[in-house]
Amino acid sequence: MPKTLEGQITMEKTPSYFVTREAPARIYAMSRSTKLIVVVRDPVTRAISDYTQTLSKKPDIPTFESLTFKNRTTGLIDTSWSAIQIGIYAKHLDNWLQYFPMNQILFVSGERLISDPAGELGRVQDFLGLKRIITDKHFYFNQTKGFPCLKKAEGSSKPHCLGKTKGRTHPNIDPEVVQRLRDFYRPFNMKFYQMTGHNFGWD
Ligand SMILES: Nc1ncnc2c1ncn2[C@@H]1O[C@H](COP(=O)(O)OS(=O)(=O)O)[C@@H](OP(=O)(O)O)[C@H]1O
């Protein structure tokens, strides 16, 4: 990490920090005052999104339904499959709380990032102690993309949407499998709501 001068914020991101066992200790050793931001979404949708991304690179993988279960007849879920494992947010958060207090961690709602991007970014700016520079006026809803986009990209006068790999169409998943996953995640979601003091509404 580069040295951070007075008045600067240094940022670093990767999707896998939150679920990497060694990450909290390493970040703590580097700087215990680091602020942590995690975007979380409904773990069932997250698993399907994760699968969709893998499928786009390896079209021959088994179906989502068959990867979900260790044993489809008994309904035993394969929690070792990373697409399922990553969504057990309460378990990952436990690991971070061994090093960082809750008030140093902000959980951004992936759903609200789509329905109210400025509102969610308002929370991020407050958390970082920044003035609310990014507001509603910076976004518009792009009907073709089906997502909010920036009216102007940084350093440009043109609108900017996220790329083709963000907001892909998900495959249809057997509703029984979706329900089984909802039941599986419910207790972990409840624990996560309790730990964060925030109901993300994934029921
Ligand atoms: N504004 C906007 N435009 C497009 N997409 C948006 C936006 N806001 C949030 N999202 C959601 O971001 C999801 C992809 O982000 P990821 O976290 O998977 O990205 S990463 O691969 O981990 O970097 C992606 O998930 P999928 O819909 O499953 O592709 C989107 O739902």
From TrEMBL:
Residue span, Sulfotransferase domain: 29-186
Coiled coil: none
EC number(s) reported in the record: 2.8.2.-
Gene3D superfamilies associated with the record: P-loop containing nucleotide triphosphate hydrolases
Superkingdom of origin organism: Eukaryota
Listed Pfam families: Sulfotransfer_1
Assigned keywords, A-Z: Disulfide bond, Glycoprotein, Transferase
The keyword Transferase appears for this protein: yes
Enzyme class name: transferase
Intrachain disulfide bonds: C149-C161
GO MF annotations in UniProt: [heparan sulfate]-glucosamine 3-sulfotransferase activity
Residues noted as binding 3'-phosphoadenylyl sulfate in the record, renumbered to the chain: R41, S49, K166, G167, R168, T169, H170
Family that this chain belongs to: Belongs to the sulfotransferase 1 family.
Stated name of the protein: Sulfotransferase
Organism listed in the record: Danionella cerebrum
